[in-house]
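BUG: 3D viewer hangs when loading the predicted structure for this chain

Environment: internal workstation, default settings.
Expected: structure renders.
Actual: progress bar stalls at 90%.

Input used:
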Amino acid sequence: MSEVGIEALLFDVQGTATDFHSTVLGALRTASAGRHPGVDWVEFVDRWRARYFDVLREAKVGKNDWTTVHSVYADALDRLLADYGVADFDDAEREDLACAWQRIVPWPDVVPGLTRLKTRYTLATLSNADVAAVVNISKLGGLPWDAVFTAEMAGAFKPDPAAYRMAATYLGLAPGQIMMVACHKYDIRAAGALGFRTAFVARPLEFGVGGAVDVEYEDEFDVNAGDFLDLADQLGC
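Structure tokens produced before the viewer hung:
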């Protein structure tokens, strides 16, 4: 059944709506072309993503001194390549690999699920990725958002309250009229603390086959769903 009073859904992008692990892993393996048999590229992707989260947790930023996520990924790539002893990627190859995070593809359920959800709700992103990255990801994947909001627009990364409040302000809605959708519990917990409704979507393959992912449903969330199609079912779409 539909959630009474909800007018808009906000979606996390990297991990929740898109499969970054497979995309980035494929880009690394293609670039390596078998030249680095000793490198565990699966581990490499995990460490790359972990470094991104480390920087976001440490960031003390504002609109006047913003650090782009693209620069975070690029810097982390250089450091990891050095750690793994990979020195034969030129500048163009490194830039293309850093941009792989802007080519991540949607999970198979996402476009059909969003298409159904859009018949009832306004759909928007709320991502920590850069605006340009979310636009590129959305165009490539055919993601039918009504609006794109990112942390860059607030000058604060999620889970900073400023990011969620910015999206609510642009939507012209009260937090209780908006549902935050994510596979990361810290994200929806932060939104819930501000009065937003919450939907947890389990993504067991977020870190690839065998990756450590928290997919347990929690009673604290308004909705727990297996994917976007399940979410659409539960929201009456």
